[in-house]
Design goal:
Radius of gyration: 31 Å
Number of domains: 6
Distance between the termini: 37 Å
CATH topology of the largest domain: Rossmann fold
Strand order of the largest sheet: 1-2-3-4-5
Number of helices: 39
Strand content: 5-15%
């Protein structure tokens, strides 16, 4: 039987609700629609279809085998009231008893946000008020994952355990702030479902649709259940923090402060995808926000090398966050307006114009956030209150303001930007010339000094304090990022529109500023390309910048530059100036490498050769040092990971040269001169067939040898076949997805179609403001 006076059957050894009861959750902030969903989720054994919802409550008949200690028949009633009282509860009970008199109920279990427990003659009434509901919410982590809105109404000190927060590297405070306004959409539920099956999900869709918000809220919900939460810009950060013995959720966001398409960021994840997929399981999740292309490219490569049985198809793990239903939009508007603590006049304005706002073709969660905080709801000349009724001073003007805030949010943002002092604007411009993702204050300070001989006009902390919250977000460890990527878009557009500003910015840039100039598929619509390279003077400045930078760039920076040039050299953006800049970059790099006579990293050389082939350039780097450096040792042992990696690196180099510089490969005597060494390797594979720690890697190496070295191809294929047939350590069986939990399966079931028209749905949601 379900106890009535304490949380029901706590499953945790150190349940915080039991050890130190927190303050009650703010169920008043949920509104009727979300509170009723909570009631449905809390009462086990009652199907969703068994609930009957009216204008005042949602009601169901508890099954006869219910665990609750109440005399049957028992009605369970979920009722949310604004500023309600004990009299209101009595009124609800009378209405329910009259409506369900045919069941002759003897008891009622009421879930409500009202703190009152009246006694009513003729019926046993038990009320679960905000305190009792809080305890039940906090003891069920799976409920917080299904309904992350609850995270935003709970006492923040109870959401994430201190030890979990200490081990996490993500911005927990930012996730908690987001939870106050977040609405779990169909895309959110689908993402959770994909993660439960594969441990890996990719969120796609245009900017401002909530991809990062979904990822962070999943992370916060799992952090409330003891999982570590980490945000990663590149795979190395994931592997640095990965721990097999701890539950962890990773959020990999290609954007993180930028809406520019960064091919090098997506490519890093695509290259590591097979390793990442093998590492993810029921205690390790990765949510990647990206465009579909890198995911598909990475999975195509995995399927080509490993087959399709053990890895998902792109459609299995990809979720599009861009499709929002009317009710979801209405709830997004409701939560933002509720969290903003608007005046009565502003609330009336939201209610009166809710349908216009929600049905607007340019509706996005981020634009609604700006709308709620913007002048349409704050300006005194828009609305006034007389005799407790809203009087709209100028209906036409109000509609115009609403449209401007939603359709053209950058208009108000540009006004804010122009209102800044020059020193403050210079900080935002310098933010365009720092690496992607959160940047430390010292790195931003260096960028400001590059672009201004005077540096900071006042103390950096003072300037950043003026810019924080509205333009920039400054975390406790002095990491700085944009409040939202749209602010960065605005600054890029302002810089691109001014020839003088471009002439001043480009000569002082680091490689990050240069990559911005070369970026493609940027901006809110993904159509902005080469934003800072408008006229001949800009191209001259970019050429001078490349000439100065290339001499000292490290390997990752050179790779990023070559990838960006390759991405820019597409038909839509190709120009003679871009061709000349790319050719100049190749020549300068070749001169640098030839002068130093040092081996070139194979991956970097591959990018250089690929760009050279696309440009049909004649320049060629001295390849001898690189070839000599990577020649395989005669003692290469297939059971030694380092030996195998070195052999693979050399074979990769041979593949590159065959494709892009076959004459150089012939000059090195490949493959005849190297046949003896590789033959010894094949001998050792045969001898150590049963003692190979990484058979997958050995099989890939054998496949490459068979393709590249004709004289050894038959032997390599024979060893490959033998290994495949005797593979017992990790059988290549069909991947069987984990079963969905009953609760999540119910959540993912199609919602019943409401009989109300769309405008009525909006009215129902917003009436609870």
């Amino acid at each position: 039987m379900e106890p009535l006076s304490k949380p029901g059957g706590c499953r945790f050894e150190s349940c915080r609700p039991c050890l130190a009861p927190p303050g009650p959750c703010r169920f008043d902030d949920l509104g009727r629609v979300q509170f009723e969903r909570l009631c449905h989720a809390l009462i086990d054994g009652v199907a969703r279809s068994a609930w009957r919802t009216t204008a005042t409550a949602t009601v169901a008949l508890l099954p006869s085998d219910s665990r609750w200690e109440l005399p049957p028949p028992t009605l369970v009633v979920g009722a949310w009231g604004r500023n309600a009282s004990e009299a209101w509860i009595r009124h609800i009970v009378r209405l329910v008893l009259d409506d369900w008199r045919h069941e002759a109920p003897r008891s009622i279990l009421m879930l409500t946000n009202v703190s009152a427990r009246p006694e009513i003659d003729g019926i046993q009434l038990h009320v679960l008020d905000s305190h009792a509901l809080t305890a039940r919410v906090l003891e069920r982590p799976e409920l917080l994952l299904r309904m992350p809105s609850l995270l935003g109404i709970c006492d923040e000190s109870t959401v994430v355990p201190d030890d979990v927060a200490a081990r996490s590297t993500a911005d927990i405070a930012a996730a908690l702030a987001l939870s106050h306004v977040f609405v779990p959409t169909r895309a959110y539920a689908s993402t959770v479902g994909v993660l439960e099956r594969f441990g890996f999900a990719v969120l796609t869709g245009p900017p401002e649709m909530g991809k990062t918000a979904i990822a962070r809220m999943i992370g916060l919900a799992k952090a409330s259940d003891g999982w570590e939460l980490h945000e990663c810009i590149h795979p190395n950060q994931l592997w640095e923090r990965f721990a097999r013995d701890r539950a962890q959720v990773f959020v990999a966001d290609d954007a993180f402060g930028s809406t520019e398409y960064r091919p090098e960021a997506a490519e890093r994840w695509a290259v590591e995808l097979d390793r990442v997929l093998q590492a993810m399981d029921e205690r390790h999740w990765l949510v990647w926000t990206s465009r579909p292309a890198p995911l598909k490219a990475g999975l195509r490569r995995i399927h080509r090398e490993h087959g399709v049985e053990r890895f998902p198809q792109p459609a299995d793990v990809q979720v599009d966050a861009s499709d929002l239903e009317i009710e979801e939009k209405a709830l997004i508007l409701f939560r933002h307006a509720k969290a903003a603590r608007l005046s009565d006049a502003a609330i009336d304005a939201v209610r009166a114009n809710g349908w216009r706002i929600v049905s607007h073709e340019h509706f996005t969660p981020e634009r609604i956030r700006r709308f709620v905080a913007g002048p349409a709801l704050r300006s005194a000349d828009v609305v006034q209150v007389t005799d407790e009724a809203l009087v709209q001073v100028d209906q036409g003007r109000l509609e115009e303001l609403i449209a401007a805030e939603i359709r053209e949010p950058t208009t108000a943002m540009a006004s804010s930007f122009h209102a800044l002092e020059p020193a403050q604007r210079s900080v935002l411009v310098a933010m365009l010339d720092v690496p992607p993702g959160p940047v430390h204050k010292r790195d931003l300070t260096a960028a400001v000094r590059r672009h201004s001989s005077a540096g900071f006009a006042s103390q950096p902390s003072v300037l950043l304090d003026r810019l924080s919250d509205h333009f920039l977000r400054v975390s406790a460890n002095d990491a700085i990022t944009w409040v939202h990527p749209s602010w960065r878009d605005l600054v890029v557009d302002e810089l691109a529109s001014s020839p003088d500003a471009r002439r001043s910015f480009l000569p002082a840039c680091s490689v990050d500023g240069l990559l911005l100039a070369l970026s493609t598929e940027g901006g809110p619509t993904g159509t902005r390309s080469l934003p800072l390279l408008v006229d001949d003077a800009d191209w001259d400045a970019a050429s001078d910048l490349v000439a100065g930078l290339v001499r000292e760039l490290d390997e990752p920076a050179v790779t990023r530059l070559l990838v960006s040039l390759g991405e820019a050299l597409e038909p839509a953006t190709y120009s003679a100036e871009l061709d000349a800049l790319a050719t100049l970059t190749l020549e300068l790099l070749a001169r640098r490498w030839n002068e130093r006579r040092e081996p070139i990293p194979v991956g970097l050389l591959g990018q250089w050769l690929e760009l050279r082939s696309r440009l049909e350039a004649q320049v060629l780097v001295n390849l001898a040092p690189t070839w000599i450096e990577h020649l395989p040792e005669a003692s290469a042992d297939p059971a030694v990971g380092a030996d195998l990696a070195e052999l693979d690196e050399w074979l990769t180099l041979a593949v590159l040269l065959r494709a892009h510089a076959p004459a150089a490969l012939d000059a090195f005597g490949f493959p005849l001169r190297q046949n003896p060494h590789v033959s010894l390797f094949l001998d050792r594979v045969g001898v150590r067939e049963d003692d190979l720690p990484n058979r997958h890697a050995v099989m890939r190496t054998l496949h490459t040898i068979a393709r590249l070295m004709p004289e050894l191809a038959d032997r390599a294929r024979a060893e490959l076949l033998r290994l495949a047939q005797s593979f017992e350590a990790e059988p290549l069986g069909t991947y069987t997805p984990r079963r969905l939990s009953p609760g999540l399966r119910e959540l993912l079931e199609p919602q019943p179609v409401s009989i109300h028209p769309d405008s009525e749905i909006v009215t129902q949601v917003l009436r609870d403001l």
